[in-house]
Amino acid sequence: MLRCAYSGANLEIVARGLRNPWDITFDSGFNWLVTDNDQNEGDRNFMPFFGARFGWGHGWSADWIGANHPSTVPITLGSRILGMAALAKNTSIASNPNSACRFFHGGASECGSLSIPDVKLNLHHFTDFSMTDIKSRIYRTALSRRRLFQLGAAGAGGAALQILSPRRSHAATATASSPATTPFAMPLPIPPVLQPVAALSPAVNPAAHQLYSKYLPKKFYNFSVRAASHSFHPSLPLQTIWGYNGITPGPTIHARYGEPILARFANQLPPDHIGFGVPQISPHLHNLHDAPESDGNPVNFFDPGFFWDNHYPMFVPRNDSREALGTLWCHDHRFDFTAQNVYRGLAMFFLAFDALDAGVEVANTTYPDALRLPSGPYDVPLMLADKRFDSKGNLAYDVFNLDGVLGDKYTVNGKIQPFFKVARRKYRFRILDAGPSRFYQLHLSNNAPFVLIANDGNLLPSPITVPHLYMGVAERMDVIIDFSKYPLGSGIILENRLVQTDGRGPSGELMVPGTPLLKFIVDRDAADPSIIPANLRPLPPITLSEVVATRRFKFGRTNGAWSVNNELFDPNRVQATVKRGTAEIWYFENGGGGWHHPIHFHHEEFRILERNGIAPQPIEQGRKDVVVLAPGEVVKIFIRFSDFLGKYPIHCHNTVHEDHAMMTFFEVVA
Amino acid sequence: MVNRRFIITQGLRALSLGAGAKALLARATASAGGNTPDHTGLRAGYFPNVLLRTHEDKPIRFYDDVIHGNRTVLINFMYTICAGKCPGTTGNLARVQELLGDRVGRDVFMWSITLDPEFDTPSILQDYASFHKVKPGWQFLTGEKDDIETLRRKLGFVDPDARRDADRSNHAGVLVYGNEAIDRWAACPANARPENIIDLIDWMNRRRTPSYQGANRPRKIES
Q1: Is A300's CB within 8 Å of B23's CB?
Q2: A558, A518: one domain
Q3: ipTM
Q4: CA distance B74 to chain A (A)
Q5: CATH 3.40.30.10 correct for B18-204
Q6: pTM for the predicted model, two decimal places
Q7: Residue A595 domain-assigned?
Q8: What are A651-666's pLDDT values in tens digits?
Q9: Domain's final residue, options A493, A524, A555
Q10: How far is CA B148 from CA A392, B50, B164, B180, in A?
Q11: Which of A291, A474, A305, A337 lies closest to B212, judged by CA?
């Protein structure tokens, strides 16, 4: 271990004799701990100090105890991590119940958690992160401000971190930048609300759908899934996209609980298509409570020339109106090509309304309990999707990028950096990260906060004022922004301040100002009968006595292929068979390696009981269907299963990861 | 007095390019016309036409002979000597070949490229292929180290972390499958169940439809 001054001068050796040091962390006193891979003996933890020698000689020797490898530190094991190193081949380290640390398997896949007095940190690959990132991770585990300052002060003064500057290999398939485009060149499109049709011909086959006769459709929708021309920006040529009804985003469905829907999807994509995307589709409504045969199962895809009916019964699970959903989205889910097909444009919004989230700003006799949130033209969905274009301005997708595809052109509702003229009143924005892989941290350019009312489409018990929104792929955040305090002519930009250049995940660094996504231009006055109520939707209780099983799903990587509990994806196998009418506790664990995974499963919402052993923050105490796991993180969730039988997927929603194939199935049985 | 030439050579060694930078350079020079393809197809500008040798010690050009054409190709990376945990992918792919029967070499072609070209010469690959009872239509390839590095990156067999990327076992578990004529490319685990791998390639080519889960079925659109 070396250290030097900030400028690089005065390079000196601090400690030596490690074989393969590969990770570090810091405790609350800014003492540093290092793990050293000892080949076949497993890994050990050290706390290096100036002048320490840990015994591995110079040159590659297979045996590292003995006279050639004198050490300066004695060996002590015990319940605390002392400034000592365990040198001898002592396999009892790993099994010593008094040992405060769990040992890590060398190299790539697993990180455990290191218990340090007072602070519980997950061991990340800090060699890849900046101090900002370390701080942000520590912050997520609710470390006190005083400790943050201690860490910050020590970091700035000490040169330790200078040795550990981020090491990133060059991007595997470094993609060229898109042509330049002027921001705010066109207005934000608001996808049209789709009108239902009177009937479908040929008629629906009731036998194909569970619970069909109990929830006879009251509304019918007919979708033509087809290729069409689309303009992302005036200075780019028209592009061929794939869209529900030929537009991207597709039209929005306004649905209401108690009004079951039958949606027919006709695949009219070009059968002889060449290029990224495959003209086979499986439309998935994320995350409606519906039957597997209407759920867009990844292996239920169909060819051009065929149609498929999805039954959306629009009832609340367990007869509990507290389980109502809100902002959903429908996107393609064709196995192994989901990322490509969604990138081509197959995504749209589906908004569920009920007695509370009624879609009216004034209570009336039909909706006496309406929350009176901003509605109608003041209830605006925003689909964020980053794209990349080649030198000719054509939409490009790197099919050989298996880590995560990042675009450099930020679209909102299908347009690159549009503007949106707003009135001086409240708006509800339903923000969706439609991927393919990017994480966002959204801020307003004037640093005004957001009023968060729903997470993953589920109304929170009460609004929460937040300074920013951190979003992974497929998460939705509903916020209210009140423009009434801004004078006419004001411009406020919704921007992304999260730096991400690596498909694996963000670095943790923030950039200010951020990348502009959408510019709000305040240009008129308008009446505003809407309110922000103090209470939104109460949460259903978590009753642990209903829990019949506990399971663990560990998301990892084996020789470069994704695995769940060390199993590769097999559409004929389920990893969990759950009983309808029961509840379970599941642990989702990110096996580490620098990968960030937004984990998702179909059919039911869940409650986060713990994140890394600690109760979740208020913004994720409600019902969710996507949970972002940073490397090494573990969440403990509570789920109930009701109504429908069959197989549903659990998968990472970085669409590039779910293809190839970070996925498994669970099955609900009677 | 220090030998000036010594300092210069040591200095140059310190400046030697890392694997990532070398690969970028290799890709740049390759696409700058180092090996002009005989055929021009959708991926002619993307894949370099580097010279490789098969396990039968025949020379082939990567773009012309592996990529180009209207057929399904399966490409993975392997190495013959593994210390410790072996990925076992060649054995799994042998089962895929067995199930595909005489389609391999007709409309499906299998290619395994070594990650250890300095050790895995054609004759070593020949022994390895014989050991795994590899039949015609599936070839093992070796070549210049830098060329193989370039191919590996072009095909997406990389880990963004430099340390993990240098560990070749991290590139042995993925299978890329595709068809240049329709420019359709995807990937799956190389150790996935052989029947699943065949499903994936048949679904991609629309040779078969999946077995649907549940009672719902697609129906033909009547014009």
Answers
A1: no
A2: no
A3: 0.83
A4: 14
A5: yes
A6: 0.78
A7: yes
A8: 999 999 999 889 999 9
A9: A524
A10: 30, 9, 17, 20
A11: A291
